Amino acid sequence: MKIGDLMVEAKLTETAFQSAPARMIERYRDKDEVFDPTELRISEVVPNYQLIRGVLAAYATGDSFCVLCDARRPDLIENWYSVMRAVRDCVLRSRLKLITWQELHATLPPRLQQFLETKYGIIAAS
Fold this sequence. Notes:
- Helix content is 47%, strand content 17%.
- It contains eight helices and six strands, in the order βββαααβαβααβαα.
- It is of the alpha/beta class.
- The model has no long low-confidence stretch (mean pLDDT 93).
């Protein structure tokens, strides 16, 4: 999803970020300029491929990139931070963000809050 100069990768029901064969990441220009490859843990399979692709898109467009996920999934949050740590440029890294559904919940209209509570058990962060 893209809103203005903000790209968002939202995870609500998925269990993980997509992985892909290493050959998929090799085709992207700028990957070696953007990432320290030793930090990405790339072998035959690229973990967190969706996130890497999003960061590369933010780099190419000059946009920001935000991951929106469930605070009850610290594994997804750590995966995002591991990708962020691999970004070489601090200016790009400053355009990378994380927000949880629980943080967003408090800003939503009551009807949408109720939907998230009922369907997914998501309540506002305390």
